[in-house]
Amino acid sequence: xxxxxxxxxxxxxxxxxxxxxxxxxxxxxxxxxxxxxxxxxxxxxxxxxxxxxxxxxxxxxxxxxxxxxxxxxxxxxxxxxxxxxxxxxxxxxxxxxxxxxxxxxxxxxxxxxxxxxxxxxxxxxxxxxxxxxxxxxxxxxxxxxxxxxxxxxxxxxxxxxxxxxxxxxxxxxxxxxxxxxxxxxxxxxxxxxxxxxxxxxxxxxxxxxxxxxxxxxxxxxxxxxxxxxxxxxxxxxxxxxxxxxxxxxxxxxxxxxxxxxxxxxxxxxxxxxxxxxxxxxxxxxxxxxxxxxxxxxxxxxxxxxxxxxxx
Length: 311
Known about the structure:
Structural class: alpha+beta
Number of domains: 2
Shape: globular
Distance between the termini: 46 Å
CATH architecture of the largest domain: Sandwich
CATH superfamily of the largest domain: Cupredoxins -  blue copper proteins
Number of helices: 8
Number of strands: 18
Oligomer: single chain
Radius of gyration: 18 Å
CATH topology of the largest domain: Immunoglobulin-like
């Protein structure tokens, strides 16, 4: 498969972003991995070396969700088995659903928006080098990391759940789930609102949140968004942190003492879900990247970064 041209940003001085960030990021415990975006975005960005530590790095230290499902509708457990098949119910009732990825492999949650664009279209879009088709043909609800859980509202229709690991897939890697019948809602978790809105994809984040509570992430923009969370180490002062939030760039982000990072959400325009706040107390930076076009480098600038303190 031919490589896509390198994607570059002006604030990286014309370099690929991987070259623009300091080697100290690795020493801080941040490991490289392809951005956990849409599967085809994973490959385009990773092969081009484009989105680097700001969209990459290891899974946040907070481990899998524990405890029983909240009262009401029980959690729906899904996972990818050893053959690459997604194990999930064939049908679900609409409503607010607690979805738990019980395995280690990332799973893409996608809604079909037109009967003309079914399994063949999805597989072709996933396998394409230029991923623009995925954004046009399907509504992306989330790229759910392994051992993570979210609350998401499902409306009647057809959904596709795909193994996010392979560079290319077949229909055997995709599970079709029909959502129909009477509405059944899970009990809404304890949460604080975190909308993203406006032409600048401005992030409105609460200043603090209790550990293991939820953020209600709501993409009110007309763009696909990636939201990434970074745990800030003691090597970054409050003044440095405030300076980055006031004038966020990828280069400035790379200069901070970042101990871990995780892409917590990737979704189409006008999608929302509830994401569990990390269990570990501390300072966290949340940034969002706005994809005007999934085939191009996302936009990142003022208003797209905020700090939240977890206690």
